[in-house]
Known about the structure:
Blueprint: H1 13-20, H2 22-28, H3 34-39, E1 46-48, E2 54-59, E3 63-68, H4 74-86, E4 93-97, E5 102-106, E6 127-128, E7 135-137, E8 147-151, E9 154-158, E10 164-167, E11 173-176, E12 189-192, E13 204-211, H5 213-217, E14 234-241, E15 253-256, H6 261-271, E16 294-296
Antiparallel strand pairs: 1-15, 2-3, 2-14, 3-13, 4-5, 4-14, 5-12, 6-10, 7-8, 8-9, 9-10, 11-12, 11-13, 15-16
Amino acid sequence: MKLISIRALTITAALSAALSSAAFADALEGKMPSSEILASSAPSDWRTLPQKSLLYIALERGVVVVALSEQLAQSHVTQIKTLAKEGFYDGLSFYRVIDGFVAQGGDVFEKREVKDAKKTLKAEFDQPLIDGVDFDPMQDEDGYAAKAGFVQTLPAGVDEEGQSIWHLHCAGAMAMARGSEKDTAGTEFYIALQPQRYLDRNLTVLGRVVQGMEYLQALRRVQPAQYEDDDLGETILSMRIGEELPVEERVALEILRSGTETFQHYVASRRNRPEAFFHYRPDHIDVCDLPIPVREQSAEDGE
């Protein structure tokens, strides 16, 4: 087992070349705005998000799309896919929505039957960083991980030994709720409305919202009901994996690849904002403050 991928905690040859390029130097100096960097990106800088890894949460307000992790927390990803296929969440609700914290959904009274999914799961708070998991680090210091960065452009952290990796509780992170014991996650989930990094490595993050976050932020604030006639919060109309939806109900999305020179330029432009409005540039950015570039493909280019 390789303890850490070649890209993980060292500057790669590609990034070294980027550091010496005039374009990257301009970005570091705050001269190249992120909008220009994205506008000049090449098609190869972007990766199509496969419909098999997109979770669609339909609300009365609109549809929330979550990119599920394709490399980490795979048991939890399989669980949420299985529950969605069962229709487990259809008609349930976001029964716990706390301002500045999370929107939690599922079966508040635990009456719904679990069919093919598991009753409980073994925790995947973190896992070994092995071959096949490409971690793209940021140069910025992080208060909760020895090194913060990205796995397929989803925020992640690595420990000091470079042996363990996990997804981060940035805004939009989707995770499985649990009881006091580690291995008690099963059906209840939550989505962070703001960064909740102190929850890292205490619960299992399995994906991140890539479209429709505004619908979650607008949910009615509510506490878990004590009785069935209490306010149960806003209804989850349905939850489905993209490949199970009719083509006309899917959205074709692509995400900027975190292992590219363009992504490094983009991070640098956010680290030191070049717009004339900014008179102080800190030469730093927090991983959760970095907007992840996601865009819709044209209809003919989508899946």
